[in-house]
Amino acid sequence: MKVFLSLRLALRFLFSHRSGSFSSYASWLAIGGLSIGVTALMLTASIIQGFQQIISEKLSSFEGQARISHIIGKPINNAQKPINFLLKRPDILIEPFIRGVSMVRYSNYAEGVLIEGVNILPESISNNDNDQVDKGNIILGNSLARSLHINIGDTLFLQSFSKAESPFHIPRIKSLIVGDIFYSGLQEYDKTLAYVNLHDARWLFDLQKDHVSGFILNSQVTPEIVDNINYPFHIETWKERHDLLFEWISLQRWPAYFMFGLIALVGLVNLIASLAMIIIEKSSQIGILIAQGIKRSQLMQIFLFQGVFIGLLGGLFGGFLSTIIIFLQLNYGILKIPSDIYFMDQVPFSFDIFVFAAILSLVFIFSIIASWIPVSGIARIKPAVSLRYE
User: Fold this and answer.
1) Is residue 149 a contact partner of residue 104, using CB atoms and an 8 Å limit?
2) Which of the residues 83, 117, 156, 263 has the least number of beta carbons within 10 Å of its own beta carbon?
3) 231 pLDDT exceeds 60?
């Protein structure tokens, strides 16, 4: 019964209908400030996680789960023991690739390009109709196609930069038709990478039959696979290949959490200030209740419940606002960023219910702790002093 009375009085102070009620006004200001802090913290967590998730998905799509190659870049024969073992395993998804540097020419334009010969295109740029590169075709990145002023169906020329030259030192040149133009949002790939058929790449770089630059492993990298890759071969996962990028993401994570967490901390400080001013405003009423015999612990409970309600509503409103922003961004891509700097063309968001629940739980706990600071002052209120001028 006492708890019910405390809840009723706390809600009355919070949702007072009396015009110009300071307690209600201060409470809603505290809720608004805390909501902004929670929104900032949730969006920060969502952006950092979304950035890492999108980068991981795109890089693993282009690079595969891992790549097997010769330690000094020599061609690999399919018949060699470690490779043959992997190729015979039906449970291991592995595809050969040939990689080399070439010059691409179209009309009066020329660009250096990284050529990758494959049988199957990466999932992130393949479409439902065709996931292969036909012989005589080339798939260009969007930025590369724009710099060459080239369109689908145009014919261009590739000139090898490798040692693949004829006995008369004439470089190998091959004409190819632009079969498609892909857009990944990763400027590093859109500007420098092109895909051709594996047989066209083998001719261009003058590799022997059954020789490739390496293999793309699309299955999970297990200890068994790693143990079977011995010198002179080595296996490198996509995370190891881009280790510096993920170190940078990890380095930025905690400072970002700290800086935007300070905004939520300001909201908690606002909660403390609001409760303190409400208690001062209600000091005469508190004195009357104490004089009538109500326990100080029950009075403290009333204002503690009010602080808890402020923290709960601030967290829920902040979470709701964050969810709306994330929904709009994921569906409409409102917030754009330059892809040549951030590896993508729009602000990434990732909705993680566990991260949101953790943030809301922390806000709720710290709201209780913050509420106790001004509420503990009720124990020092003397009815004779608070009612002196009443």
Assistant:
1) no
2) 263
3) yes
| Burial degree of 204 (CB within 10 A; 0-12, 13-18, 19+) | buried
pLDDT tens column, 240-262 = 888 887 888 788 888 888 888 88
**Using CB atoms within 10 A of its CB, is residue 321 exposed (0-12), middle (13-18) or buried (19+)?**
middle
Helix, strand, or coil here: 161?
Answer: coil
Count Cβ atoms below 10 Å from residue 40 Cβ, excluding itself: 20
DSSP string, 175-191: EEEEEEEE--S-HHHHT
Burial class (CB in 10 A: 0-12, 13-18, 19+), 50: buried
Element holding 231 (H helix, E strand): none
Contacts of 292 (CB under 8 A, 6+ apart): none
Instruction: Answer whether 138's CB lies under 8 Å from 156's CB.
Output: yes
CA distances to 17, 34, 257, 278 from 270, in Å:
22, 8, 20, 12
- Of 83 and 97, the one with more pLDDT: 97
Q: Can you tell me the distance from the alpha carbon of 63 to that of 97, in angstroms, rounded to the nearest whole number?
A: 11
For residue 132, give the DSSP letter.
B
Q: What are phi and psi of 118, to 5 degrees?
A: -140, 165
The length of the chain is 390
- For residue 100 the two structure tokens come to 């080399």
